[in-house]
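ugh finaly. both done.
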Amino acid sequence: MTNYVTDALPGWAEDPWVVWPVFIVSVIVAAVLAVVGQRLNSGGGTGPVRLVPLERVLASGMESLTAPHGAGPVRGRTDELAALRRMLKRPEGRLAVLCGVGGVGKTTIASALAGAAHAEGVRVFWARWRGQLELAEQMARIGLECGLPEERLEEARAGRAALPDVVWEQLNRAGRWLVVLDNVDEPGEVGPGGEPVAGYRGWVRPGGRGLLVVTSRDGDAAMWGGRAELLRVAPLAAPAGGQLLLDTVPGAGTTQEAERLSLRLGGLPLALHAAGRYLAAPGSRYHTFTTYEEALDSHLATLLGAEHPGGANPEAARQLVRYTWELSLDQLDTNGNTLARPVLRLLSLLASARVPVSFLSPELVTAACGLPATAVTVEAAVNGLHTYGLLDTPAQADGTPAIGQVILHPLVREITALTLRAETPDLRVLHRALAERMTAIVDEAANADSSGWSMSRLLAPHALATAPCAPDARTAGRTLDRLSVSLRRAGHPEQAAILAEQALTHLQPELGSDHTEVLSSRNNLANALSDLGRHEEAADLHQQILTYHERILGPDHTNTLTSRNNLANTLHYLGRYQESADLHHQTLADRERIFGPDHPDTRISRSNLANALYYLGRHQEAASLHQQTFTDYERALGPDHPRTLGSRNNLANTLRQLGRHQEAADLHQQTLADRERILGPDHPDTLASRQNLADALRQLGRYQESADLHQQTLADRERILGPDHPDTLGSRNNLAIALRQLRRYQEAADLQQQTLADYERTLGPDHPRTLGSRNNLANTLRYLGRHREAADLHEQALADYERILGPDHPDTLTSRNNLAGLQQASSRVAGQRRRMRRD
């Protein structure tokens, strides 16, 4: 210590046994005074409140409490404003919290409400959160404006009353009012003495005769309490976002171009305003929505995500696209949530799609960022990001939240990844951690069979994104290939085909065309293409694979027999039934010889041969094989296994062809119920069961039920498979037949005309389905009295049936009977006309 009167130290200061106790006591006293001062500044307790002099409070008036004026009309916020206006009219002891990610437009909505309230004569006050002391001063001014006596305020200043109580007592006595607390992003600091906001003892309270509206990034309902109505503000839909851009720069492009740019920017108002300001500036390089959108792909950093000299200033940062999220991450970090930023950056390296939360294992987080992680801390990171709106929970088809899934706003993802790459040039550690986690979770999903199908679908886009990060091409290819198989079994052939193609791009250059893994991946691709209705491509691939396997592995190897089986299936879909049956016959004999009659592969061959015989019109043989296979599957796999359900479906189809319609309908009804329960309503096998039940009901004379089921199946197949898939065309054909049975002949003819044209275009004029469609159209034209057209089609169909399927095939015989019936009917009509002329 220094004596400022002389240069000499006082005598007591030379004794350390005196100096140190005095120093320690001084520190303790200073700390206590600091804590007491902080509590007094917060307005809690009964001590005097540190505010600026009362004269200054009175002199400042209303200028700083005025709501900001909007730059133009508010777009796309009708629902939020309507809800707030209802609350303003009848607060009913509630407060409103507008919450959402930074830059989503919370302040804009509150400002629009303030303008509407002012126009209705409601007293409006706007307070901005910049700390406890400034908020206390603003609320004191609001109290004075609402009639708070100065002497009552002085009581609070003297410590005889709590300032928040004094102000809120006056607000609850005043008439209608609206108070907006803007940017309360740290609500834990608003309450007095560290008390939770939900206790409603501080500045955040539900009003009696007026409404308090808070804007915040914090969307934690527990934080705000049970009397707070949380209005979660979402990004703007494309029409509203496009209109916002057109408001700013009306000459920058068309409505469609503005909406496309809005979609590219994720509908985030802050980004839309930034784009509009840029396009309107005279010195900008880009002046149209289209050129700006194109520039984002290569100049995102320049346009939205670059370092900014004002980024360190919280007030300036709120106007910058990137920094508005960094403020949230800083706050989470300050609150002890140290994994929030690393988890967000990990997610930014994945695809722009839903992410299963279980993908974010503690091992992944630790391996990627080097910080210790547990299931609890990773969960806290995800929940913290969700609370601040940086992560969202996607909605399911029925509108309910998809629990266990998260999704990033596209711009948050893009700019976070940009920031990560700028700050961490070497991302190999993160990439390797993501790739290893992807391999592990794909294996888990594949081993879980049907229970892992939903996980497999979620993983698909992220597996493609992380494949280049795998330690080697072989690992990447294996992961993609295994996921492809799971997706095909789950009934998603389009995703399966994409993954199989990508697996080949990794495996083939590394291992060579003849390697077993490459051939397996090519086989999986061929199966997926066949499921997509691309049968010619699938057949070519299967033929190549079979040739390779026979040459490399020999005719009796498991892979060779599988290739022959798959080729036979594809030939069946191409309508080459006899070739398909011959290959299945050979494969079944080989599998029985090598593996025995009860081996799973043998059962598959027996079932496939039965299907081939069915289409050759040998229904009794097919029924016997299907009955045997169904019994074996039920015994070996249980009644709910997908193979058991498939076998029951095939048996029912064969019984229907044998005229045992009620038995067939009962089996189809049971199979449909089981498939809906086990596989889900949209699985291709479920749709096939619904179609087969509809056919069985039609043959029982229950035409309206049949038509309704066919209509539902057609709509689902068009939605899931697309309008040109062979199964979709089959549904349209069957619906037309049901409508004909209901005597709705013109509707049936129109559908059949469309279906025939589509079959000829997609499958060719000689495919059995095309021939059947031509035959069905001819039958319907006959009912419309268009006998000449019907006869021409029947003659063409019969000639084609005899040439392609042979003279004795059941479809050929049916076609011959149809033509003969039509000729007889035409003869009767001609005879009647001759008699009428003679009479």
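ok and the 2nd:
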Amino acid sequence: MPSGDVLVLIDESGRVIEWGRPAEDLFGWSAEEALGRRVATLLREAAAGGERRRILLDSVEVLVKPVLRGTSVVWQVHMAGDVMSGQDAAILKAVFTHSPVRLYVLDNQLRVMRMSTIAGERQDTSVRPLSGTHFTEACEFSDPEEETVVAQRVLESGAPVVNRLVRRDRTPDRPTRIYSVSHFRLEDSAGRGVGLVTSALDVTDRENARNRLALLDTVRTQVGHMLNVTHVCSELVDAVVPAFAGIADVEVIEDVVRGEDPPSAPVPPNALLRRAAFRGWIAGPPIGVKRSSPVGTPFSDILTDLRPCLVKIEEDDPWLAADPARADVIRRSGAHSLIVAPLALRGRVLGLVSFYRHQREDPFEEEDVTVASAMCAHTALCIDNARQFMREWITARTVQRRLLPHRPASHATAEIAQLHLPDPEGGGAWSDAIALPGARTALIVGDVAGKGIAAAITMGLLRTAIHTLADLDLQPDELLARLSDTTARLAAARAALPPDPVNREPLTARCIIAIYDPVDLTCTVARAGLPDPVAVFPDGTSAPLPVPPGPPLAESGSAPFPAITVSLPEGTTLAMGTGALADAVLATSGSVRLFLDSIGTRPLRDVCDDIAHMLTDHHRTDETLMLLARTKALPQDRVLTRDLPAGPQAAPIARAAARRQLEAWDVDEETAFTTELIVSELVGNAVRYGAPPLRLRLIFERMLTCEVSDTATSSPQVKHARTVDETGRGLFIIASLADQWGTHYRTRGKTVWAEQPTRAAGERTGDTAEPA
């Protein structure tokens, strides 16, 4: 207003006879409150700080002029020209009456002296009682003590606080609000703090929008890490409670949990829903419960039209009676607002999600429905990925279980136990204990890199190949060389397939083979990529067997697979495993190695169980497989060894020695006759084609094995003699009489052997009966 404009007219008695709008803005009294009252009374009220607003007397400068009006003298009160211009007054008026920001003028006791009105809000007597109250009472912030400390700090230091987010809690008649609060100090001409100007801008909508965007970002980053349907649902409820809802309940179509294809909408009324996740401030229904959704409820409607809906819950809603399980959750939680959203993808229904808000939370708004729909769309995609993975996982695990031995084979000369902790996604690890001629046992551990069906199938092919190669009675290094050739052919066949993510991955396989001889008490070992085996001796000491490292199977180049032969006393436990066990179990400093060293004579099955528990505590992540074998010596009375001369007399000497031993073993007459014939032909072949010294060995374990050794390296071959030929029928006769026969090559020379079942031993594929 222009300088000199009249604020107040005072008559001769000191009473107010005119009170302009500028005076209302400056002093805080309305015309109705000031007219007719004495100025002295108004000043006393202001100075005393009573129920009316106090005026900062030392911050207001006015000019009082006497004016003759008729025969009376009145006093005109003007604003001093150098204190406030007309433009300043106009600005103050606009700020205090048309600004969207609530302004509070506080005294140095933080009491409200003056308060603006929000644009569009009528200033009436309802705001007058706030004059003189503490500003935290006027604002009704959730934490008045903290806000008082902040305001007092500004008053004392003069450093303003800008855009501080402050919350006002929900009450039964109004929702939760969020304000951006700023404090600025008021100073007198001497720079002393005489009060504060506090602004409060309602930013609830802005902050809610930010919170919704942040929630969506949280769901997108936190949901879908695990390829398991139940885990994905748990990740969703963890992300949204309590940030979005007080309670979240996820139910998934039962077929989806099993990895099957989800149904199309509308879902049949009898379709089963499995509760996959529940989180809230009350205990919910058990996880895993299966039920159908009653018709006529918001939940059945969602499964029909796939349209998310916002439901205001009333006590007399008829659908509550139709769905007592959900009605119980609503009753116990005091829920008043519900959003039901479908878990759907490309018209296929995976399940639904229910979001509840209770009495301590604001009701859902329409904007929240959009957010819930977006969160469920992302979750549905993650669930579908997990469903497809689960189907592949079930297939891979089934393939792996069918390709692996159901139980370790029983061997009279070795106690066998296997520890197998499969990868959650399936893998390609396997182990075998294969009985070889001469009561020997081949111990095998292998591992195909990768996961899923491809790794399981490759493992099955390699396992089949090594069983076939084992029938050739090769040494471990030769077995690995031929297995590597087979692996290389599989890798080439994979590379020739049309490009896909699986075919682009190189085929990598590792293997270790140990052949234990219970007669000589030796073990020959070769390895391709897997860690050294560990031998735990009967005296409690242990040591890794220094097997020279060989390359992984099918690796380019021609690197050999060197083997070593070590002596293993009876009662030694041999431990072989995949690479996942190298640090924890097989390494000298491994955390489980001390336990392995102290197993003594405990049953190996119990040892595997204890190690499995320890490895679970170590949070393993890869497929783990270990084979334990405790050696036994073949009793001396089950072995006949006889050196033979190099001439024709060798055959009758061998037959006589065999006949006596077979009688001692109480072998039936038919088997004894066949064995004598086999011994005669084997010795005759060695005399004719071999090189001295010759040696006969009979081994009576599961099978009756006849072995004839010589130092020649030539390979015997079956001939088909003509009717008039006098020779050439030896190996043909052996092949006809024996269950199987073959040649075992040693460092010097070879051993030709033949096996046949006995009455006591039973069939080779039978159970573990001891010979009579």
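summary for the 2nd one i guess: The first strand starts at residue 6 and ends at 10.
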